[in-house]
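Handout, page 2. Input:
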Amino acid sequence: MPRNTTLHDVAAAVGVSARTVSRAVNGEPGLSDATRKRVLETVERMNYQTNMLARGLRANRSNTIGLIVTDLTDPFFPALAQSVQQTASKSGHTLILASTQKAAETESQILASFRARGVDGTIMFAADGQRRDVLQHAREGLPMVLIDDQDGPAENLTSIRNDLEGGARAAVRHLLEEGHRAIAMISNVQSPERSRGRDRGYAEEMRLAGLGDRTRIVYEEATVDGGAAGMAALLSSPPRPTGVFAYNDLMAIGAMRAAQAAGLVVPDDLAIVGFDDIRMASLVSPMLSTVRIDRERLGQTAVARLLELIERRAGSGAEEPPSATVPVLGCDLIVRESSRRAHSVPTASHDETRQEPDVEATHE
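Output:
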C-alpha cells in the first residue's frame, strides 16, 4: 500500500523547508506570493492532506463548529445547514448539526454536549427564555452567533437578523395592491413573543392602510397541518378573509389545501402568501407567492461572524470588542400564482421579485 504524502515530501518537491510548507498551508504571513503559490500548487498536485486534529490540538481548537436549529423537518433548516457547512469547510471546519425540536431543555443539553466536544463556536436559533443560559455559555468561553435574536451583542456573542418585519410588510402590501382588504394572518404559536417580527410587520402594514381594526391573527403549529387548522379557523368564523399571509411556506401550503378542500379557488376566491421560499413553494399548484430568505447568504454571514469571534477569543483577531451594529439581511417578495388575480398584469416576469434592502440595527 502506498504511504500518504508527508509535509517533508512536499518540502523536498518544492525545494523549501518543512516550516515554509506549514506556514503556507496554515495561511501564516511572511511568505512571498510566489512561494506560497508554488507550495499550494504542489500540495494539491501531491494530494497532501494536513493533519487537522494535530493542528487543532496545537491551537487549542477542534476545527468544528455547531449549528443548532429548531426543527429539521422544516425544509428551511437543511438548506441553511448546507450553506453553513459549505462555508465552514472553506476555513477547515467541520459542522456538527443538532435540532432542539423546539424544546428549551433540549437546547441546554445540546449546548452542554457541544461544549464537552470542544466545538470552536456555535450558530443557533435560541429558544424563548433561554437568554441567561446562552449568555452563561458565552461567558465561559463559547463563541456564539444567534440568528434573529432581539438582544444586543455580549462577550463572545453576536447576532444576525433577517428583516422579518420588512418581509411581512411587503407581503401584506402586495395583497393590498391586489385589492384585498380582509387580510388575515396564520402565525406560529411557538414563536417567541419578543421576536414576532412577521406579526408586527403584518399589523403595521394593516394599520398604515387604515385597516388596523381588521387585523386578525390565528396561532397554530408552524407545519402543513397547522396551516390547515389555521385556515379552518378563519373560514369557520366570519368575515371570511380574501387574503391570507402565513408565517412560513409550510403553513401557507396547508392553508391552501384547506381552502381548496372547502371549495375555494386560489387565488380568485382567496389569495395566499407564505414566507421562506422553500423549494416546495414553486412545486405546489398554484405556485406559492412567498417572501424569500436568502439562506446561502445567511449561512455565509453567520460563519463569517462566528470565525471573527473565534479568532478574537484566540487572541489573533481584532482587539476591540464586537460591534454593536447587528447585520439585518433584507428579504425578497416573490410573486407567483397563489396571490395574483387573473386581472393582474405582471410588471416583470412570472416570478416577480421585490428587493427589500439590507439595513443595520444598532444597539445604543
